Amino acid sequence: MEPHLIDAFRAHAAAEYPAEACGLLVLIDGRPQYIPCRNLSGQPGDRFELAPEDYAAAEDRGEIVGIVHSHPDATSRASAADIALCNAGEVPWFILSWPEGDLNMIRPAPVPLLGREFVHGVQDCWQVCADWYRREWGLEFLCYERVDRWWEDAQGESLYEARYEAAGFYQVAEPSRGDMLVMRIGRTAHPNHAGIYLGSDPSLPGEAAQVFGPGPFLLHHLYGRRSEIIVFGGQWLERTALILRHKEAR
C-alpha cells in the first residue's frame, strides 16, 4: 500500500470521526487513488453503508480494486460482518483503526456451507440455500435486498411467499432432496426461515457434516447461530409453511 493512499485513508477517518469513514480504492489510468464516499448508515458510529451513487461515480472513473472503511475507537480486526461482506464481493477490504491508525486487509475467500456465522442479509438462511443451489446445481439468483426482522411487519411484504415463483420455484406436497422448506420460527407475521431438504443423504462434498440418526436431514442457518445440518422432523415439520421445488431440480 502506497504511503499517500494510507495518508488519504487516515485523513478521511479523522474527518469523519467518531463515525465510520468509507471509501474506494480505484485504479485510474493505471494508478491507484483513494476516493472518499458517504456513509449512509443509520448507525454510522458502528457500521457503514457506502452510498450507491458514490460507488457508481467511482466505477465511471476507473476500476474498483478495494473497499476501505474505518473502525472508530476499535482495532482494525475484521468483524464477522466485514468478513461476510468481503467474501460476498470480489475485491479486498482495508480496515483502518482510528485514532490508532493501524491498517488491516482481508481478501474474499470461499465460504463453507457449514459453520458460517450469521450476518443478516449476507450470510443468513436464504443465503445458505442460494449458495447450496449455486454449488450443487449451478443456479444463480438475484441479490435480494432485505431489512432485518422484515418478517415482524404484518403490513409488509411476505418475502418468501411473494417472490418464490419469480425465482423459479413452485409448491409441492412432499419434499425431495434439494427442495427448499420455508418455515415459521418464533413470533412472526410471515414465514421467515428456510433450509435445504437433504433427504437421507446429509453429505456435502468437501465438508464434514456431523449428524446422527437416519434422517431425513435439513441444511439451515438459524438467526444468530452458525449454519448446520439437523434431523428434520418434529417441530421443524410442524413449522413448515411451504415446500418449494425449483424448476431446474436435478
Brief overview:
The protein has helices at 3-16, 52-61, 80-87, 125-137, 159-163, 235-239; strands at residues 22-28, 31-37, 63-72, 93-98, 103-106, 169-171, 180-183, 193-199, 217-220, 228-231, 240-246. It is α+β, with helices and mostly antiparallel strands.
CATH architecture of the largest domain: Alpha-Beta Complex
What spatial order of strands do you see in the largest sheet? 6-11-7-8-9-10
Mean pLDDT: 94
Assembly type of the chains comes to: single chain
The coarse overall form would be elongated
Secondary-structure element sequence?
HEEHEHEEHHEEEEEHE
How many β-strand stretches? Answer: 11
Structure overview:
- The chain has 250 residues and is of the alpha+beta class.
- The protein has two domains: 3-106, Cytidine Deaminase, domain 2; 125-246, endopeptidase fold (from Nostoc punctiforme), CATH 3.90.1720.
- 22% of the residues lie in helices and 25% in strands.
- It is built from six helices and eleven strands.
- A six-stranded antiparallel sheet has the order 6-11-7-8-9-10. A five-stranded mixed sheet has the order 2-1-3-4-5, with helices on both faces.
- The protein is elongated, with a radius of gyration of 21 Å.
- The N and C termini lie far apart (47 Å).
- The mean pLDDT is 94.
